[in-house]
């Protein structure tokens, strides 16, 4: 902060004369040219009681600091005011303190107590600024106080104060690095913070203090990924950069199975946001279609990072875009890196400093991933108004991008550049042409001819540069180019640029066999002008002379000796040395013939052709976007980007205990932007199976199911996260099994869909609606169906436990966060494991029915599993048709299917044990069900407007099964049709206690009318009431038994905020309905 | 700047932010809103206060000008007077609500008597036209700048007739990305005042209509010390709109000593030191095309310059977005009043060059 260095001569400058250069300044001159005498008055002003005078004084003092004048003698007077009530005075005192405290440590201590008081202030702004200043005062004695203050602030209520605490950490660290361990503890604590405000700052502190402690990140990795989009821009940059390093150490390189990823159409990965949402799904699908020959599956956490950073490419901040670009470049599979090109090209439009940085990075990337920028070739065309360094970088990129197909356009473009007025740029262009010629064999001759034409250019620089490049090109294939060498030889008369002359001489010497006649003549001319040449030319003349002497000594012996004699007396010792050395080598003397015999080999050894390559070639070992990359030198504080690990470190370190996670997700849910990560788990409990509503019965089933899962399921991975996550994490041995499972799932899904269509009207409406919906929803629906059907077909315990769990978890977010227990999500159960479980469940089959937790009216629910039923499988659906016998009864369709070997006979309902009020209308006895056959029956149940389960026995001739049907609250009613006015009238009657209101936020996915209506009607059997305004939805129904009205109103704002109102005199039903609908809508 | 400098792009970005942040404050004092040296000197204290809020130990703290404005009230003449009388201060003593809320870019408690929201769709054509008049590359870069002065917490949605046109977009953080992805609708709670809502790019794949052409004949002769110079500017594909504010500039080669030119309209200047020719044409009248003719005097004895100058063109077309982008409607939710809404289109030349 100290923008103003104190000038030495001003030290103690109470009597210093006013500085003339500021004397003219009308505003300050009056005050400052003579103000040294007024220091007394400043002191006086500071001592008064009037805030305005104090303020005035402080302003002048700060202005003095800004001018670089020493105001330290005022320290005692200023420090007194640190306790001033006026906040502006206070702030200025802070500015002063931060500037001078280090010089006057003893006096500075006087202010500490004020800060300590400030740290306890009820105003968070004051607490924060006290901490800021306290930590900025670099006085070693107060380190313990600072430490204490930081620790306290780290658990402050206000996130703003916690943010300040995070900022204070590096300050303290730089003051006293011995505190590191304690500071790391604070960082660890702050890393667990869930507010976006803190995240950026604490990661910054982490990077400063302990970047090597990557283990601190594990637990927070997913949280950081998910928060990222809501963090402010500066924080985003730091977090992304840190996560890049983290990912490099924790995940496997995605490029190891490059070929495979290329087989997948890119579309599947990032064609659109919809795809993005189910990224892991498609990844997984790819896994199943391609046989197991590839061992690499991207870690879901790796995928999460890529997915959550991608939207940030759309950020307005160039720094963020650059950060994401480097992340993708370093971490993404080859096929996906392409997305960043567009964003980077966009950045080229901003001002030239940003352009410079971006182009540097593009230049590096374009070497490795040329295809990525090829479509944007024209965006790199150079404008005459670009600054030179931008031009040269663009040229670099164009050269990197040139290939067989686009080289004609590129060369044509280069041709116009050669005529530019900017000579440095022209020279660079010529070099670029040279590079194109070496890289692309097809155009070498064209380029060479073009360059030769340039030799007649009037501009010396152009000619010289061309000669140098031609030299390099000729070296690659000298034989055919005698003509060009001759042409060059002629040029020696005209070209004055030393480098070019030297190059020509070297060429002639090297290929003197190709131009036997001209070479000696050139030497003759050079010998004549030898004394006037530049050093570099002289050296080459000696070189040429030596080579000619060796090949054509008859003609050139005398000339060579002449040249060598001239060189012997040259002013430059280099040349003298070279002359002596050469003479000894080539002219055979009496004693030392050993070397001269090999002179020809020494001078005319075949030389490897130079490689013309980009200066950006090896820059990618620096992390892109870093200062070190920009400078191509290691800057202080640069963190080396680690290489991918050979073996993936244990991914389970990132798992977080569930309660914490749920809380977090709960919080997230309220957020508008967040989503992708949860989309999968959303899918699992979509509208087709709304959650159970009775928390009590549920927690009962919870405890049982968890007990069971504990015994039965080996891998009791926790988390309410999506199943893909789990899947990826399971060990590789399970992989193939899982794939198999997945395929089966697909088949099952089809079956399930078919059945659904045939039997349940709701399912039908679902699928028809999905086709009319946007891609996104249909996609999510697919996902919803898939896991649902998977669960349906798995054995009872494997199924019922997760279902119950799933629901409870989701409920928990709103109701009982404490009682969450880890449970394994269904897909992790491999097929073989599932079979084992089947065996297990057989033993305690009577338990099964009570475990059943019916989830929704729309989908098919299981009443009896085929294993438990010894071959008899029973499902039921709520058909939502009026039951013919009794209008108060809910009609339930029961589907039997016999998968045993023998026919099942005499299916009927046995003596029901029913709670008071509930009655059952049994279905007619089914006489016989042949093996493989199925049958459907309808029964009616009067639930008496409660969600109590109807327990009854299902009897065959040989056995009895205890089963129970529990209705979701939405099934206890039937739609009623009424007009808007009627609705309003009825609603007016049902206010007060009968009205239940809940606020919710609709996720983006269900903002369209269609989706909202569909979701509501799936949950509850209600009829829609026409409504005048577009954002309001109304539904009406009557409970079946008592016929009381149930009115539901949803007032949805386009922003997503919505209010749900249910009016019903049955308050219990109303409450449950609100809960169910909210759940369905917010997922 | 102690800590932050490891990310090269960030530094540039940060410096820019600081500059705009400070300029923002000073502009309230200075009538023209320029951030010049004397202005900074006069307001050193404010600059200090602003910097203090923006950075903590080199790490950016609060860079949104809206928040800064709440932390420190910009100095205005009026406030200075009020402050001297009442003894109140420029520094706010409450944490700006925006800092903590979900919408950090908007301050709370905004009140206006006239509620208005203006959106300017401004498109710039970047093009390189070669010697023969054919387009080498042309792109449209567009921005939507907004000036929103609405009371309370309005929630706006802006929809386009043809959103698919936009190839690459970058948003102000207020725009809900998901909504755009799924429905191609801009939905946002706007910051208060002026801000850039969106910048977009219409890809080079779509054909870009070039609204002007330049006919030129610039020739140097080896023998004579005089060169001929002639440019004509004419409209094409303007969709019936007039082209205004046409300005032609060209960097002449070093060999050109002076130029004697006669424009058919507008004024022209040639700076013999920088060799910069500029011709302020004004409006193009399609009936009578503006032209600039004359001779160049070259350095005697020197050989003719072998490069031809590039012509840079500036122009403006009101009421037209050259890409064809059209705003469909703007709706406001969350507040009761009826705002005044306005949309303006404009097409400008960006980096528009004609090679000769």
Structure description:
The complex is a heterodimer of chains A (1083) and B (356). By secondary structure, chain A is an alpha+beta fold. The longest helix of chain A has 28 residues, at 732-759. In chain A, helix 3 packs antiparallel against helix 4. Chain A contains 52 helices and 15 strands. The model of chain A is unreliable at 1-35, 258-293 and 658-858 (pLDDT under 50). Among the domains of chain A are: 40-251, Leucine-rich Repeat Variant (Alpha Horseshoe), CATH 1.25.10.10; 854-967, Sandwich (Immunoglobulin-like); 971-1082, TATA-Binding Protein. Chain B is of the alpha+beta class. Chain B is 18% helix and 40% strand. Chain B contains 7 helices and 18 strands. Chain B has helices at 8-26, 37-42, 44-54, 65-71, 77-86, 97-100, 177-183; strands at 55-56, 59-60, 116-129, 135-149, 155-160, 168-171, 185-188, 193-202, 212-220, 226-235, 244-251, 256-263, 267-271, 276-282, 291-298, 311-318, 327-333, 340-354. In chain B, the strands form 4 sheets. Chain B has a 9-stranded mixed β-sheet with strand order 6-8-4-3-18-16-11-14-13, with no helix packed on it. A 4-stranded antiparallel β-sheet of chain B has the order 9-10-15-12, with no helix packed on it. In chain B, helix 1 packs across helix 3. The model of chain B is unreliable at 1-6 and 28-33 (pLDDT under 50). Chains A and B meet through helix 4, helix 6, helix 8, helix 10 and helix 12 of A and helix 1, helix 2, helix 3, strand 1 and strand 2 of B.
């Amino acid at each position: 902060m100290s923008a103003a260095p104190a000038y030495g001569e001003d030290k103690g400058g109470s009597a210093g004369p006013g500085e003339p250069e500021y004397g003219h300044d009308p505003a300050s001159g009056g005050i400052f040219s003579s103000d040294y005498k007024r220091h007394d008055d400043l002191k006086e002003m500071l001592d008064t009681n009037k805030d305005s005078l104090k303020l005035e004084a402080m302003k002048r003092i700060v202005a003095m600091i800004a001018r670089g004048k020493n105001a330290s003698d005022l320290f005692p007077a200023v420090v007194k005011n640190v306790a001033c009530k006026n906040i502006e005075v206070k702030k200025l005192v802070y500015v002063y303190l931060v500037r001078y405290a280090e010089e006057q440590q003893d006096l500075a201590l006087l202010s500490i107590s004020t800060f300590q008081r400030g740290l306890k202030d009820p105003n968070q702004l004051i607490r924060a600024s006290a901490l800021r200043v306290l930590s900025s005062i670099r006085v070693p004695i107060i380190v313990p106080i600072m430490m204490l203050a930081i620790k306290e602030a780290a658990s402050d209520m206000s996130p703003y104060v916690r943010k300040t605490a995070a900022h204070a950490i590096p300050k303290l660290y730089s003051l006293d690095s011995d505190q590191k361990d304690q500071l790391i503890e604070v960082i660890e604590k702050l890393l667990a913070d869930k507010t976006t405000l803190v995240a950026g700052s604490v990661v910054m502190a982490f990077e400063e203090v302990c970047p090597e402690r990557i283990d601190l990140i594990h637990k927070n990795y997913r949280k950081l990924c998910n928060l990222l989009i809501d963090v402010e821009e500066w924080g985003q940059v730091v977090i992304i950069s840190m996560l890049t390093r983290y990912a490099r150490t924790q995940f496997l390189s995605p490029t190891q199975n490059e070929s495979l990823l290329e087989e997948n159409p890119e579309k599947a990965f990032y064609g659109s946001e919809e795809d993005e949402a189910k990224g892991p799904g498609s990844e997984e699908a790819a896994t199943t279609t391609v046989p197991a020959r590839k061992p690499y599956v991207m870690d879901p956490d790796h995928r999460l990072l890529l997915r959550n950073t991608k939207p940030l490419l759309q950020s307005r901040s160039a720094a963020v875009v650059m950060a994401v670009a480097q992340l993708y470049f370093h971490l993404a599979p080859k096929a996906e890196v392409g997305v960043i090109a567009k964003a980077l090209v966009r950045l080229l439009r901003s001002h030239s400093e940003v352009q410079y940085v971006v182009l540097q990075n593009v230049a590096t990337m374009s070497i490795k991933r040329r295809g990525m920028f090829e479509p944007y070739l024209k965006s790199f065309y150079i404008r005459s108004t670009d600054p030179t360094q931008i031009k040269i970088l663009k040229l670099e990129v164009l050269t990197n991008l040139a290939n067989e197909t686009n080289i004609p356009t590129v060369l044509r473009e280069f041709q116009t550049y050669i005529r530019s007025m900017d000579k440095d740029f022209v020279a660079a262009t010529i070099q670029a042409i040279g590079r194109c010629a070496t890289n692309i064999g097809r155009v070498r001759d064209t380029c060479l001819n073009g360059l030769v034409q340039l030799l007649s250019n009037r501009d010396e620089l152009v000619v010289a540069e061309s000669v140098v490049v031609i030299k390099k090109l000729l070296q690659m294939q000298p034989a055919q180019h005698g003509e060009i060498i001759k042409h060059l030889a002629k040029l020696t008369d005209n070209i004055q640029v030393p480098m070019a002359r030297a190059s020509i001489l070297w060429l002639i010497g090297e290929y003197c066999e190709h131009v036997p006649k001209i070479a000696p003549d050139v030497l003759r001319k050079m010998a004549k002008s030898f004394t006037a040449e530049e050093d570099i030319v002289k050296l080459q003349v000696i070189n040429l002379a030596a080579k000619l002497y060796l090949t054509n000594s008859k003609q050139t012996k005398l000339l060579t000796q002449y040249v060598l004699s001239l060189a012997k007396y040259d002013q430059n010792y280099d040349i003298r040395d070279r002359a002596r050395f050469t003479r000894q080598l080539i002219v055979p003397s009496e004693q030392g013939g050993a070397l001269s015999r090999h002179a020809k080999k020494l001078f005319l050894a075949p030389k490897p052709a130079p490689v013309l390559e980009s200066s950006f070639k090896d820059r990618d070992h620096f992390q892109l976007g870093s200062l070190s990359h920009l400078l191509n030198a290691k800057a202080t504080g640069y963190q080396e980007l680690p290489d991918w690990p050979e073996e993936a470190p244990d991914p389970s370190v990132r798992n977080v205990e569930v309660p914490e996670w749920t809380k977090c997700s709960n919080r997230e849910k309220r957020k508008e932007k967040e989503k992708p990560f949860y989309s999968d788990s959303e899918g699992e409990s979509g509208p087709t199976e709304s959650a159970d509503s009775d928390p009590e019965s549920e927690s009962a089933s919870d405890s049982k199911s968890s007990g069971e899962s504990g015994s039965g399921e080996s891998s009791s991975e926790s988390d309410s996260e999506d199943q893909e996550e789990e899947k990826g994490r399971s060990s590789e041995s399970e992989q193939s099994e899982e794939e198999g499972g997945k395929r089966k799932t697909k088949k099952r899904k089809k079956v399930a869909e078919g059945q659904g269509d045939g039997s349940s009207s709701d399912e039908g409406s679902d699928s028809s609606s999905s086709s009319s919906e946007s891609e996104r929803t249909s996609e999510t629906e697919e996902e919803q169906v898939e896991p649902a059907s998977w669960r349906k077909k798995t054995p009872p315990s494997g199924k019922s436990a997760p279902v119950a769990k799933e629901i409870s978890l989701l409920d928990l977010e709103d109701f009982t966060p404490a009682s969450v227990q880890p449970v394994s999500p269904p897909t992790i159960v491999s097929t073989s494991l599932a079979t084992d479980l089947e065996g297990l469940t057989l033993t305690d089959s009577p338990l099964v029915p009570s475990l059943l937790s019916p989830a929704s009216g729309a989908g098919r629910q299981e009443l009896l599993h085929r294993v438990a039923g010894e071959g008899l499988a029973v499902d039921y659906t709520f058909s939502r048709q009026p039951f013919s016998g009794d209008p108060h009864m809910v009609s339930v369709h029961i589907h039997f299917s016999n998968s045993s070997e023998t026919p099942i006979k005499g299916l009927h309902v046995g003596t029901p044990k029913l709670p008071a009020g509930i009655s059952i209308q049994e279905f007619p006895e089914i006489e016989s069900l042949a093996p493989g056959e199925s049958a459907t029956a309808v029964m009616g149940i009067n639930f008496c407007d409660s969600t109590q389960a109807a327990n009854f026995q299902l009897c065959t001739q040989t056995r009895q099964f205890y089963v129970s049907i529990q209705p979701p609250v939405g099934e206890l009613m039937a739609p009623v049709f009424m007009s808007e006015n009627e609705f309003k009238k009825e609603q007016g009657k049902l206010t007060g206690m009968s009205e239940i209101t809940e606020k919710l936020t609709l996720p983006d996915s269900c903002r369209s009318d269609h989706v909202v209506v569909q979701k509501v009607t799936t949950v509850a059997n209600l009829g829609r009431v026409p409504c005048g305004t577009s954002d309001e939805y109304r539904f009406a129904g009557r409970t079946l038994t008592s016929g009381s009205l149930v009115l539901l109103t949803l007032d949805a704002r386009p922003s997503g905020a919505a209010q749900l109102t249910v009016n019903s005199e049955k308050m219990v039903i109303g409450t449950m309905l609100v809960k169910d609908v909210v759940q369905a809508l917010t997922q | 700047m102690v800590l932050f400098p490891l990310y090269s792009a960030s530094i540039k970005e940060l410096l820019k932010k600081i500059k705009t942040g400070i300029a923002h404050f000073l502009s309230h004092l200075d009538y023209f809103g320029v951030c010049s040296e004397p202005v900074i000197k006069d307001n050193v204290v404010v600059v200090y206060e602003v910097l203090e809020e923006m950075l903590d130990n080199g790490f950016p703290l609060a860079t949104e000008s809206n928040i800064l404005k709440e932390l420190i009230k910009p100095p205005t003449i009026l406030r200075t007077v009020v402050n001297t009388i009442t003894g109140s201060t420029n520094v706010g003593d409450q944490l700006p609500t925006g800092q903590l809320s979900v919408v950090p870019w908007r301050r709370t408690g905004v009140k206006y008597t006239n509620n208005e929201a203006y959106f300017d769709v401004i498109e710039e054509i970047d093009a390189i036209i070669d010697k023969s008049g054919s387009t080498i590359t042309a792109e449209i870069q567009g921005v939507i700048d907004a000036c929103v002065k609405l009371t309370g917490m309005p929630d706006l949605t802006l929809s386009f007739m043809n959103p698919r046109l936009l190839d690459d977009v970058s948003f102000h953080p207020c725009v809900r990305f998901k909504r755009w992805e799924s429905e191609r609708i801009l939905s946002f709670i706007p910051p208060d005042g002026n801000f850039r809502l969106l910048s977009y790019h219409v890809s080079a794949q779509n054909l870009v209509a070039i609204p002007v052409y330049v006919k030129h004949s610039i020739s140097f002769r080896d023998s004579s010390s005089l060169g001929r110079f002639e440019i004509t500017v004419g409209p094409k594909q303007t969709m019936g709109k007039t082209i205004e504010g046409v300005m032609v500039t060209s960097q002449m080669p070093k060999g050109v000593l002076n130029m004697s030119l006669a424009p058919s309209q507008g004024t022209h200047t040639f700076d013999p030191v920088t060799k910069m020719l500029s011709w302020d044409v004004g409006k193009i009248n399609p009936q009578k095309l503006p032209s600039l003719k004359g001779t160049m005097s070259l350095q005697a004895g020197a050989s003719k310059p072998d490069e031809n100058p590039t012509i840079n063109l500036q122009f403006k077309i009101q009421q037209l977005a050259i890409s064809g982008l059209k705003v469909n409607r703007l709706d406001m939710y969350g507040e009761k009043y009826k705002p005044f809404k306005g949309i303006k289109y404009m097409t400008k030349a960006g980096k528009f060059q004609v090679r000769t």
